[in-house]
């Protein structure tokens, strides 16, 4: 599954040109290129794209701040493709609201696969009434298609939080508290980001059903589907 429209925000003209050509000709995605984050934000369609590919080192608003702005206005998929390295970079982009982080140099085929994986997760479910179920006795998540996924204790605790929230965002602080973790002000919550990532991957490996678990910039995470406790 690929999005219909995509905004590519990157000031590397040669890279952007060839990636745009690949995505349009090989993947059938309508790509709009922006070499400056301010140029995207000035566009009347800035928040109407189905997907965003974002570099971090940009003229104008930097990549992390741009992700935060996008997350306040859209639930579209956001993938970071950047040459910046380091665990602190991963924490920044995931906390800001990005769905995935790829490190340059990266093959165009890998970018396409990342876009498809995130699009499956963020696209709206085919039925708003599709109910996910958390079986606390067996420690399993029951997907609407009937698949049963064995969960870790941390997975179960997180999903209980989302079930009790009834589709509303759950703060990072609430999730960390549920997991029995305390993070002092200014410290990293990489552990939570990694736990959420592992939960998503566990579900994606078990079923093709769209995973309705999304990040919310400056807030936490939200499970955008009915989740019933058993």
UniProtKB/TrEMBL annotation:
<dbReference type="InterPro" id="IPR001789">
    <property type="entry name" value="Sig_transdc_resp-reg_receiver"/>
</dbReference>
<protein>
    <submittedName>
        <fullName>DNA-binding response OmpR family regulator</fullName>
    </submittedName>
</protein>
<keyword id="KW-0902">Two-component regulatory system</keyword>
<keyword id="KW-0805">Transcription regulation</keyword>
<dbReference type="Pfam" id="PF00486">
    <property type="entry name" value="Trans_reg_C"/>
</dbReference>
<dbReference type="InterPro" id="IPR001867">
    <property type="entry name" value="OmpR/PhoB-type_DNA-bd"/>
</dbReference>
<dbReference type="InterPro" id="IPR016032">
    <property type="entry name" value="Sig_transdc_resp-reg_C-effctor"/>
</dbReference>
<feature type="domain" description="Response regulatory">
    <location>
        <begin position="5"/>
        <end position="119"/>
    </location>
</feature>
<keyword id="KW-0804">Transcription</keyword>
<feature type="DNA-binding region" description="OmpR/PhoB-type">
    <location>
        <begin position="122"/>
        <end position="225"/>
    </location>
</feature>
<dbReference type="InterPro" id="IPR036388">
    <property type="entry name" value="WH-like_DNA-bd_sf"/>
</dbReference>
<dbReference type="InterPro" id="IPR011006">
    <property type="entry name" value="CheY-like_superfamily"/>
</dbReference>
<dbReference type="GO" id="GO:0003677">
    <property type="term" value="F:DNA binding"/>
</dbReference>
<feature type="modified residue" description="4-aspartylphosphate">
    <location>
        <position position="55"/>
    </location>
</feature>
<dbReference type="InterPro" id="IPR039420">
    <property type="entry name" value="WalR-like"/>
</dbReference>
<keyword id="KW-0238">DNA-binding</keyword>
<feature type="domain" description="OmpR/PhoB-type">
    <location>
        <begin position="122"/>
        <end position="225"/>
    </location>
</feature>
<dbReference type="Pfam" id="PF00072">
    <property type="entry name" value="Response_reg"/>
</dbReference>
<keyword id="KW-0597">Phosphoprotein</keyword>
